[in-house]
Amino acid sequence: MSTTTNAGGGAASGPPAPPGPDTAPEVLQPRKVARDPSDWRRAFSRQNLAATLFAGYVPMILALVIIALPLLWMVISSFKPASEIVTVNPTFLPTDPTIANYAKVAERVPLASAFRNSLIVTVVGATIKVFLAITTAYALVFIRIPGRNLIFMGILVALMVPPEAAMLPNYITISTLGGRNTLWGIILPTLGTAFGTFLLRQQFLTLPPSLLEAAELDGAGHWRRLWQIVVPVTIPTIATVSLVTVVSEWNSFLWPLIITDRPESMTLPVALNLLQSLESNTGNYGVLMAGAVLVIAPVLVVFAALQRYIVAGLTQGAVKQ
Predict the structure, then answer these.
(1) What CA–CA distances, in Å, run from 12 to 6, 8, 16, 20, 308?
(2) Is 1 within 8 Å of 13 (Cβ atoms)?
């Protein structure tokens, strides 16, 4: 109810007067709704998440394509005849797949003996190298021997020296000992692993001292402490060192090429080099691709076998405090 004032000063109630011609109607202004600050934060978080996913996945996908496409092309080409590889109109998949290329590899080079030699060199060499890396790293961390820091500096210096610098002294030494064209001549000069020793030493330094102190109070010696306490809690790092060592031993090419000159003493990489020399002038690249697949396939199997141990150790954790 609106009130009006009469001439006597009193207030009189009555209906509101209608707007006159000179009175402008009231314009309704829109109400301003306050935005919740959390809405802006959520929108900003979504943008950051999208940018992070884009920046993270795009480089990985590009790297995967760059690495995987040549390998995939190699595997597919190993099943193609020569006419489908060297052609004006190449096809990605073979129109007439064949396994004759793998049979030709076995005919051209001593594939069976090369595979056996590579297997022996890899298994024996990698086992000894990992064993020496574990024991050396344990001694540098947990055994108080005089000059251990100086020994570790020598290991770091050996890590910085390229392997090619030791080829000539090793060749003279192994040849003098009668190790040419022998498997032990291939294995012996590469038994030391500065990288594995350095990596395991750094991992052993992160172990809590209470683990070994409790074992020492129980009367456990160094050998028992190493294999029952230190090794089980550092399985991921040991698996990584083992994987790198196996791949390095299997793919080793220069030293076996120098120390051997007989087909029966060759390893697979050297046999593949011989195959390339024999087939490079014929244009039969399918045979070369088949030989490369035979060299790479065992390494991929070993990586697939060791990867789950590495992932399991990293995700579950080894030490609980």
Answers:
(1) 7, 10, 11, 20, 93
(2) yes
Q: Tell me, what's the pLDDT at 259?
A: 93
166-186 in b/e burial notation, b at 16+ Cβ within 10 A?
Answer: eeeebbeebeeeebbeebebb
- Of 285, 116, 83, the C-alpha closest to 186 is 116
- The DSSP string of 262-309 is SGGG--HHHHHHHHHHHHTTTT-HHHHHHHHHHHHHHHHHHHHHHHHH
Give me the residue label for tokens 């402490």: 225
pTM: 0.73
3 three-class SS:
strand
Q: For the residues 249-269, what does the mean pLDDT come to?
A: 90
Cα→Cα distances 209→119, 145, 202, 228, 237, Å:
39, 18, 14, 15, 19
pLDDT class of 51 with cuts at 50, 70, 90: confident
What distance in Å separates the CA atoms of residue 179 and residue 187, rounded to the nearest whole number? 10
CA separation for the pair 147, 150 (Å, rounded): 5
Report helix angle 100-108 to 111-142, nearest 10: 80
- Taking CB atoms within 8 Å and a gap of at least 24, the contacts of 66-74 are 71/296, 74/289, 74/292, 74/293, 74/296
- Residue 9 three-state SS: coil
Cβ–Cβ under 8 Å, residues 185 and 256: no
Average pLDDT over residues 107-135: 92
Asked if residues 154 and 197 have their Cβ atoms less than 8 Å apart, the reply is no
Whole-number Cα distances in Å, 212 to 141, 201, 225, 273: 12, 15, 7, 50
